[in-house]
Amino acid sequence: MLPVAVLSLSVLVALSATGCAQVSDALSGPAPTPVKVKVSGGDRLSLKQARASVLTERDLPARWTAVKASPDRSDAEAKPEVGRTACERAFLKVSADQSAAPTAEAKGEFRSGTGLFTIALRTEVSSFTRGNQAADVRRVEKVLQKCPNITMKDGGQTMKVTVSPLTFPTLGEETLATRMTVRSRGQKVTLDLVAVGIGHNVVTFWAAGLKPLATPALEQIARAGVARMAATSEPS
């Protein structure tokens, strides 16, 4: 199943707290081509393979620096209150349905820029017992399409989230690419999410900041992440 982290509202809270972001000139690149890219990498991964599949500084464009990955919050902490409209109920349902824990999982976090001009990037590789993760990616995409506006409460913080699709090529068997604009306490943070389903595996990428990371730059990073996982999963 698609990892709950893909839908976890705690990701919005964690990344929105990293500060502001501004697109760097070094992160620009060619416009994405909306074509399907055939890649391998669907075989179930061991923990060693999952860790080896995570991007490193050397895989990224200049000015990205690896940082210590922040710990995930507990299940109780990671479930902010969501308004109970029909749309939000569907959001919660798909999250609950996809609660199976991955058999192997690894992540990496990076920063570009300093102070108010920081871009936060997080990438995660998750492998599951059941194959056809692409179908779960599609389910999430359908729910997000039906939920362009979401209101959440996390502790004493109220967040209004606007969801819109990104123009992005299909990597692997299925790709979800969406932009979440989070408004809270007079501040606006943009969170771009890309989730790629391939066989037993899902590779996810989050980029957050006050200004969005250029989509071509995010595509470049996603392609590198999917290619790294595919190379790692190939039999030696």
How many β-strands, per DSSP? 9
Overall 3D form: globular
The overall pLDDT average reads 76
Strand content: 25-35%
Order of helices and strands: HHHEEHEEHEEEEEH
Summed up:
The protein has 236 residues and is α+β, with helices and mostly antiparallel strands. Helices cover 27% and strands 30% of the residues.
Provide structural commentary.
By secondary structure, this protein is of the alpha+beta class. The protein has helices at 4-7, 9-16, 47-53, 86-97, 133-146, 215-233, and strands spanning 64-67, 81-82, 104-112, 119-127, 149-154, 157-165, 174-184, 187-198, 201-209. Strands 1-3-4-9-8-7-6-5-2 form a nine-stranded antiparallel β-sheet, sandwiched between helices. Strand 6 and strand 7 (174-184) form a beta hairpin. Helix 3 (47-53) packs antiparallel against helix 6 (215-233) and helix 4 packs antiparallel against helix 5. The longest helix has 19 residues, at 215-233. The chain is globular. 41% of the residues are buried.
Quickly list its features:
alpha+beta, 6 helices, 9 strands, globular, disordered N terminus
What is the topological layout?
Layout: H1 4-7, H2 9-16, H3 47-53, E1 64-67, E2 81-82, H4 86-97, E3 104-112, E4 119-127, H5 133-146, E5 149-154, E6 157-165, E7 174-184, E8 187-198, E9 201-209, H6 215-233
Antiparallel strand pairs: 1-3, 2-5, 3-4, 4-9, 5-6, 6-7, 7-8, 8-9
Helix pairs in contact: 3-6, 4-5
